[in-house]
Sequence to fold (355 residues):
Amino acid sequence: MYTISCGTVCLDGSPPAYHFDKGFGDGIDNWLVYLEGGGWCETESECKDRALSIYGSSFRKPKVYYFNGVLSNNQMINPEFYNWNRVFVRYCDGSSFAGNVEAVNPATNLYYRGARIFKVVMEDLLEKGMKYASNAILTGCSAGGLATILNCDRFRALVPSANRVKCISDSGYFIHAKDVPGVKRREKRFAGVVRLHELSNFLPSSCTSKRNPSLCLFPEYLVKDMETPLFLLNSLYDSWQITYNLKPHHGDEHGWKKCTKDTKLCSPGQLKTIRDFRMDFLKSLQEIGNSSCTGMFINSCYLHCYTYSTERWNCAAGLGNTTIAQAIGDWYFDRDSFKGIDTMHDVPQECTQCL
Fold:
């Protein structure tokens, strides 16, 4: 594990860190950078608790990380990218690598510097050889998938001489879902992240000039203005979003927990909410347009995150016989502008073959 200081720190003041496996063979000049996920903190109290966890401190991170899925160096598992330079960037800021607050509250001693973490890690990788990259990918899952969208064009600007630079957002397409219960709570949560981590100046003006900055963490308002090719890997029944972003009032807490643990136990009303979420998800995908640069693998599995799991990375996951690895490889190397969306299933699928 590599650590970097330069005044750029995690929530608790520890140095940011990343794991690196050097490329070899014909992949020696190619780079894949993976941003770890793990939610956000929207209040000082939440961030204080987070600073005591693996998602707020590099001191609490494991020193060794085993690369699987898209990060694997096994050609059978990861035939397209196995011999690339592969990097796993640890997440310890709570803002999807986007915060940039200079002042430190003496009462909490918390640092909100996610954007600086991204910047100094990238600078370190450039010095390790990424500035000579022929091909490059920025990717990540969940909050790291959102960070991928937020930082994608910045990443492209770092390697202007590369032949091919693209981004892959895995389960990072968190939808606003304006027509689904809980919308005010979803807006409030992202508004808290934007306010506490001071993201207004970080978020693209193409969004903030048209709407409240608190809405500019929802990818549907960002993707159509991106210049770098993007692949969206997500489920219409994203299990994290359904479990937490659709969670009803506390009076129905027990029933919702039972439903989200096993969707076969959902009541008719709960299933309707989940189906409405799916419809809003489909609508948001339609609204971002049909750019030939945007690839999609949108299934109906009741799962969250695919790329770091060997089983899920090599799973067809409900879209014919094409695996996620094949779809992304074909899209990245321009063999096929893959756009697969499962519109057949109106209930979540278990996809046990991917577990």
User: Anything to note?
Assistant: The chain has ten helices and nine strands. The radius of gyration is 19 Å. The mean pLDDT is 94.
